[in-house]
Amino acid sequence: MPYYPDFSLYDYDYYSPPEGMTIGWLMKGHDFPQGDVEIEDLENLADLGHLLEEQSRGWHYCTFCGKPELQYAWSERFDSKYALGSAEIRVRSDDGTLYVAPNLITHYVLDHGYRPPAEFLRAVREDVRRRWPQGA
Ligand SMILES: [Zn+2]
């Protein structure tokens, strides 16, 4: 998995032009912002990660954990536990900005104290509200 500072242009897919901004592509050796994340935001990330968008063939492992092992997340919405590290989370803010994060972001927040940028978390809430309107 490549390392990107937050708010880089996403160019992982060689064949298509950059289309979004990177969030949460963390790697050992690079500092990242830390802080508390509200439970609603964490649950949103776990639900969006469950969609397994842009699934890759292999698995990416967290470089902060000592050994390469799969990490898992629990999605309340889908009532399901799933493995992280082979898919992305893609969210669009109400103003149309696309953000691309590895679904490992849920693990980074939960186990390594990563605090994603506020504007990304706002876009996540906007995307979730559009995707799953209240009561749906
Ligand atoms: Zn880890």
Mind sketching the topology for me?
Blueprint lengths: L20 E2 L16 H11 L21 E5 L4 E5 L3 E5 L5 E5 L2 H8 L5 H14 L5
Parallel strand pairs: 1-5
Antiparallel strand pairs: 2-3, 4-5
Helix pairs in contact: 1-2, 1-3
Helicity level: 10-25%
What is the SS-derived class? Answer: alpha+beta
Cα separation of the termini: 34 Å
Global shape? globular
Total separate domains: 1
Order of helices and strands: EHEEEEHH
Number of helices: 3
Bound molecules: zinc ion
Strand runs, count: 5
Mean pLDDT: 91
Strand neighbour order, sheet with most strands = 1-5-4
What fraction of residues sit in β-strands?
Answer: 15-25%
Uncertain stretches: none
Largest sheet: 3 strands, mixed
Q: Give the C-alpha Rg.
A: 14 Å
Tell me what the structure shows:
With 136 residues, this protein is α+β, with helices and mostly antiparallel strands. The chain has one domain (21-131). 24% of the residues lie in helices and 16% in strands. It has three helices and five strands; from the N terminus they run E-H-E-E-E-E-H-H. The chain has helices at 39-49, 105-112, 118-131; strands at residues 21-22, 71-75, 80-84, 88-92, 98-102. It has a three-stranded mixed β-sheet. It has a two-stranded antiparallel sheet with strand order 2-3. It starts with 20 loop residues before the first strand and ends in a 5-residue tail after the last helix. Bound molecules: zinc ion. Zinc ion is lined by residues 62, 64-65, 107, 111-112.
